[in-house]
Amino acid sequence: MCRLQEAEWHTVRKRGVSRERMDGAAPVTDLCDVGEHLAEPHGRQLLKIVAAEGCELIGASGRRYLDLTSGWNVANVGWSNPVVLDRVIRQMKSLALAPAWCLHDPGVRLAEALATRLAGEFAVLRAPTGTQAIEFALRVARRATGRYAIVSVAECYHGSTLGSLAASGIPYLQNEDAPLASWHRSIPLPGAPGAALEAIRRTILSEPAPAAVLLEPILTNVGALDCGREYYDAVFSAARACGALVIMDEVGTGLGRVGRMFGFEHWGHTPDLFVLGKSLGGGGAPVAAVVIARRLVEAVRGLAFDSTFAGTPAGCEAALATLSLLTDTDLIARGAEHGDTALRALRTALQSHPAVKQVRGTGLLLGIEFEARSRAAQAHFANAVVTELLTHDVFAATSRYTHTLLAMPPLTITARELSRALDALILSVTNVQRELSQQE
Questions:
Q1: Contact (CB, 8 A) for 152 and 158
Q2: d(Cα 196, Cα 205) in Å, to the nearest integer?
């Protein structure tokens, strides 16, 4: 073991971990700056990796990091899954891409696999990414209802394009890039001021009448928040009463992440549209989709739904392989079991910890929200824990706008890997709390 290099120490020091604490840990030499030619939005040092397999990221130094992000829920079936990669490579050798106005067998089979997964009549609109799929879903809802307003949930993120930002519930982003118009409004988070169920209904039912209510089955951006059945009952009831459609954003929660194939299955309500992305491609190729009630298909006719890279043959094969893995194995059930184990362990160890406000989670979407005097202090603490985790060969991230530490490893994580991750999380929170207390 050796001391952190000075350049690395400078970055760690800014995040509140003292030099003395780091003396016994191996230096994280895979941290690097982005250089002068990349426009990098995070403003921080990044981990330079050269490969990924299973639940591990492999750094440029050869060091292996247990990944608690899954690439933000991309690698639900594990990094470099051989089943996914084999089908993608075989497809790329014959037809990797196809013009948007051509039909190909992988696209037809993927649409059938998704549309027939649920009881009822559904069709599939292909998209290249989750963000663009959200855009498509909003457009379908507006065309189908003849309305424009969207109701979302406060602090929830649905994409980085202007339309998805405007429909999200994050005031900072709306003020920064997509000014909030009168036809967009948000319902509060559970427990927030004004979050009574009747107030939520009034917000949805108010004018202008909404085209759709957009929400997640488990809120990812705010740190794995489960709103509860009554919340969703109120949302669906109000939407039905005013003729609004319900769009469920399953980009981060779908395909086994929260213990079911689709997160909305927890609540007994089927949305009019739901959006899949990220993990749909199994980490092998980008692909996304909007699953639409068939009565809404006519709203797709016409211009502005074409996308050059929507539903590529290679992407569709990756999705088909992913669906097969999730359907034909016990990955979802095992992930749910691991999630329950992790939630119990973290709550036992951290729920009464002075630095921890709450530990929560559903399936393998877990969040540790930190107690702090301000959001800036909360972010400082969370980032310090992320940095500390790297010294234990664990890679994690915080929710971007709420600074809750998230743990969402691939569903393929083993009991041994999970135990190692939990030990590192508990130790890192304790170490950072002690070091910051000594600095005060």
A1: yes
A2: 14
